[in-house]
Amino acid sequence: MYKDFFGFRELPFKNALDLTTYYPSDRNGKIEKEVLKTIKELKVSLLTITGDRNAGKSTLGIKLLDSLLKQEREYKVIFLVITKKQIDFDSFLKRVIRQVNISGEEIKSVIDFIEQEYNKEKEKTIFLIDNSDNLAGEEAIVNLLRLTELKDEDGRSIVSFILLGSSLINEWIEKNEKLKEVTKQFHLGSFGLADVKGYIDQRLELYGGEKEFFSEKIKEKIFGWLDKKNKISFPFWINVLCDAIFLKAFLLGKKSIELDLAKNVLEKIILNIENRKE
Fold first, then answer.
1. Confidence of residue 57 (pLDDT cuts 50, 70, 90)
2. CATH 1.10.8 domain position(s) in the chain
3. What does the alpha-carbon distance between residue 25 and residue 11 come to, in Å, rounded to a whole number?
């Protein structure tokens, strides 16, 4: 709607899962680096990345997938999105079997596949599972550990799981001593002020805009508005607010974004974010 008015190639603050708009924030960078290091050093075989709804878990998952795939001849990566709630372990296995196109219907088929991949190219199998809180609770995760018991000739695990989802996953793990011992947990928190500013600037530059559209004061106001809402400075909500500000300016026929205009939008906008947890 306002794309041509402001001279953008595309709408700069659309919410879409797209790595071209990935912002390497401090929080994302630290988690990505630590996850990759943990997998490489074989410290643990089960990793969880949790966060509130719209925190950017799926985007970080895609970025991890991209990073893992670039390390050729090291990993065989299987990326799954669990869309059905309460999927049990047997149903999970069937998803894996269909996706990698292997014969059989039981856990032995998956074990054989993992071992063959490792014996053939010394590739460790990584399961990257988004929406993993849709698994059928603690029992399903305990069953995943049966696969992590697969070792190479030096006793190192040849399979790892990265689970992305809500904090419900960690609640399951905390109930089980065995799971706690073998799991490394990460939590995707909010952007700080510096990352909010950097994220907005990157989006504007990426689509042909100018940083000057939003003054430092406006970016601080956006961060302050979100920070008051229990610290939910996530890319999703930053996009929503910035989009609303540009739309208001377009409707008023203003080519520049003034602080008063941005404040007016923020004062009037109401987002349904109170029940934001998954």
1. very high
2. 3-18+191-268
3. 21
CB 109 within 8 A of CB 97: yes
Task: Flag whether the pTM goes above 0.85.
Answer: yes
**CATH number listed for the domain at residues 26-187:** 3.40.50.300
Q: Average per-residue pLDDT in the chain?
A: 88
Q: Indicate whether 233 pLDDT > 70.
A: yes
Residue 84 and residue 196 in contact, taking contact as beta carbons nearer than 8 Å: no
Which two structure tokens, joined as six digits, stand for 22? 């990935």
Residues 6+ positions from 49 with CB-CB distance below 8 Å: 31, 35, 57, 60, 61, 162, 163, 164, 186, 187, 188
Which DSSP state fits 175? Answer: T
Query: Is residue 62 packed enough to be buried (19+ CB in 10 Å), middle (13-18) or exposed (0-12)?
Result: middle
Mean pLDDT throughout 75-85?
Answer: 92
Helix axes 26-41, 57-69, angle to 10 degrees: 50
Residue 274 has pLDDT above 50, yes or no: no
Helix (H) or strand (E) holding 90: helix 89-100
Euclidean distance between CA atoms 252 and 235, whole angstroms: 26
CA dihedral of 265, 242, 209, 201, whole degrees rounded to 10? 120
Could you tell me which CATH class the domain 3-18+191-268 is placed in?
mainly alpha
CB atoms within 10 A of CB 210: 12
